[in-house]
Amino acid sequence: MATLVPLGTAATYGVLANTAITNTGLTVVAGDLGVSPAGAVSGFPPGTVTGTIHVNDAAAAQAQADLLFGYGNALVQPVTGTVATELGGTTLFPGVYNSASGTFGLNGPLTLDAQGDPNAVFIFKTNTTLISGAAGNVILAGLAQSSNVFWQVGSSATLGAGSTLRGSILANTSITATTGAIVDGRLLALGAAVTLDSNTVNVPALSTCQVVVQPVGPVVAGQPKPVSAVVTCNGLPVSGASVTFNGGAVPVTATTNMAGVATGTLTFNTPGTATVTATVTAAGTACSCTGVVSPPVSVTVTPQQSCQVVVQPVTGPVVAGQPTSVSAVVTCNGLPVPGASVTFNGGAVPVTVTTNMAGVATGTLTFNTPGTATVTATVTAAGTACSCTGVVSPPVTVTVTPQTSPLSASPACWRFNLPFPVPHLFVATLKATLTPAQAGVTVTFYVSGLPVGTAVTNASGVATLNNAGLSILQISASSYTAVATVGGSTVQATGSLTPCFPPA
User: Fold this and answer.
1) How many angstroms separate the CA atoms of 311 and 232, rounded?
2) pLDDT, one tens digit for every residue, the chain (504 residues)
3) What is the 3-state secondary structure (H, E, C) of 160-190?
4) For the chain, how are helix, strand and coil distributed in percent, rounded to 5?
5) What span, in angstroms and rounded, lies between the C-alpha atoms of 409 and 317?
6) DSSP string, 248-317
7) How far apart are the first and last CA of the chain?
8) How far is CA 333 from CA 303, 384, 395, in A?
């Protein structure tokens, strides 16, 4: 989108040159006329100037400096359309135009249609020349204004006899207006002379106040978003102006800085399309700024990003003392979040793991106590636009079963060792069974933590220790323990130990 080219003090000049201004005939300049830094003015009279003639003075020097700034502004504005070299016979709408050849010719009517927007801007950019013929004529339509038309010329501009041009020519070198050419705008030359011949140059009414909202980047519902607007008076920044931004949940008022920029923060609560405008509510400037409203700017508000962590159901039996695999999925607006740190809680010791490309984190928890346990997953770090850190999953309940062993011990009883209690006063028969059955496994039996003997399993997996000798202290124990090594792992089982009946 084309934006108004700031001309500063050069805006009051109908003709401005670097080296010289020469005139032949009854030229009329409705505005100021100036030359700087070391030029001369001739031909006035017979030409007339309604404003002030400035020759190599501070005002002309400042106007040249402001012209240079405006030329640079027009030069860098992005091109919105490339058109044919010949502009005559065409209709164009607001925008920034160049030609493939790098030059423009005007040999017929060119219509500039603002489509009902009096603030619409037209900029024409050439690498070299602008040349109009006698039939060249710029026609304004749809409320288009000469003050909003600019011709940035890379070298020199020549206006044909009797042609009519509207807008301001900003030439890098020189400008020549031949006999009877009419300019509804300005002839401003940065590097050389302006030559006139019985021309009419009317400086357009100076722009008053303009407020332009700057483009707004990505917007997320519910999140504050900085917005800014530029306030200018005749192309110059207006500092200290109060600007109210509308379009968010609550209007916000900010003050322009020295560059005429006001920056505030709006929050858009509802996803979809929103419209932002800026209104000047107060401004200490000669421009009529108060009450000026910017053109609307549309913004697209996306739904607020939402982070979720979900623990997956635990599959398979959960046995006390044995590691159990647990996993959780981390998503942002339904998309997986890779590289997030997730801590699982609920086991004997928390464990932290990282999500893979599918957003899945998998770890191992150990539950030491049989019964019911609750597992949760907490995101402790996540490199994502979502606010994921600190998000906790809904709890998942798991049932922890007691640890099982392939070895079982049968109930046993002790009795007196009669008729002769040698070598022990008390004895018991202790039995342990391996499931599935495995023969040849040595089982050691303990009572009160002391070994009382060993036995080897038979083909049925049963190991029997007959007449295990017990002391009077050992019979006070209520159980015995069988211990074996199966598949490289030590397993054990506990059986009850009670008095036999009868005891002999």
Assistant:
1) 57
2) 788 788 888 989 999 999 999 999 999 999 999 999 989 999 999 999 999 999 999 999 999 999 999 999 999 999 999 999 999 999 999 999 999 999 999 999 999 999 988 778 999 999 999 999 999 999 999 989 898 899 999 999 999 999 999 999 999 999 999 999 999 999 999 999 999 999 999 998 765 788 999 988 888 888 899 999 999 886 778 888 899 999 999 999 999 999 899 999 999 988 899 999 999 988 766 566 778 899 999 999 888 777 899 999 987 788 887 788 899 999 988 889 999 999 999 999 999 999 999 999 999 999 988 899 999 999 988 877 677 888 999 999 999 988 777 888 899 999 988 877 778 889 999 999 998 899 999 999 999 889 999 999 999 999 999 999 998 888 888 899 999 998 887 888 888 999 998 876
3) CCCCEEEEEEEECCCEEECCCCEEEEEEEEC
4) 5, 50, 45
5) 24
6) SSS-EEEE--TTSEEEEEEE--SSEEEEEEEEEEE--SSS--TT-BPPPEEEEEEPPP-EEEEEPPPPS-
7) 111
8) 9, 11, 21
Contact 280, 291 (CB under 8 A): yes
Is residue 341 within 8 Å of 354, Cβ to Cβ?
Answer: yes
- The amino acid occupying position 493 is A
Question: Which tokens sit at 365?
Answer: 């928890």
Per-residue DSSP letter, 7: -
Q: How far apart are CA 325 and CA 321, in angstroms?
A: 13
* Closest alpha carbon to 67 in 191, 182, 205: 191
Q: Is the pTM of this model over 0.70?
A: no
